[in-house]
Amino acid sequence: MGQVGLRVAKTRAIIGRLGFPWRAAAVPSGVAPAPLSHRLGADYDTDWARRYPARLARAAIVEGIMRPAMSAIASPNRRGLDRLDDLDGAVVFVANHHSHADTPLLLTSIPDPWRHRLLVGAAADYFFGNRVSGAVAALAIGAVPIERNRVGRRSADMARGLVEDGWSILLYPEGGRSPDGWGQEFRGGAAFLAIRCKVPVVPIHLQGTGRILRKGRTLPRPSRTTVTFGDPLVAAEGENARAFAIRLQAAVAALGDEATSDWWQARQRAHAGTSPGLTGPDVGAWRRAWALGHRDRRSRRKRRRWPEL
Fold it and tell me: Across residues 105-117, what is the average pLDDT?
């Protein structure tokens, strides 16, 4: 071995012993090693996305990109904003979930003072599976990681701390987008958060976003949408998260009835407990698809027949 080869071998041996730069320091004997932190999924740190430069960039994205895009693609009809007039402070917004278009539509529909202090609870396994998608979601929509497959203490404590700091949060209690155009049963996470933080919940119903970018589609298709805001709800004394979640689901279903019929008839059915459910009929897939199409055709006929005043 030549002189150069000998020097290279010695250098490699030294680097190997040091483990530089790829190996952590050795753990002393008798001490349990700390668990590895990948800083992804529910562990992804989004604190940087709530600092002023990131908030300024997000405001520019929402107002300069999302708003004109949603106006062109979704043609939104926003109803019920007057129901928020007496509301103040942090709020939990809950909505049905049909499409990736739901979040930009809501970010441009929820009014001030909440719009620019609003965070979006996003599936930790989907949006924060790698650093690039996590950074984009945190910056563009203010996403924070939420574990949707189990009740995670980290996610719950993080969300509670943010709400107590004055941030409002948008959650989709279904846990994911609709697979067939009908809603899914609400889970109790949003209700649990509202009960723990003692803040009101604003139910929202979205109609038409599934036609824009339904699950499985990559390119959007323009369609008219309706965003209906409901009266703020608070948990009753002693009401648990499951019971409150059922009440929130019923409120969103009543708003969906209001969007496809009229306010008076929808209020009557809501009072009688006969509002059409979000989850649709418990029948075969083809009948569920037919019923959904039939409902859409009926709502379009009613909108043509009765002018909006």
Answer: 95
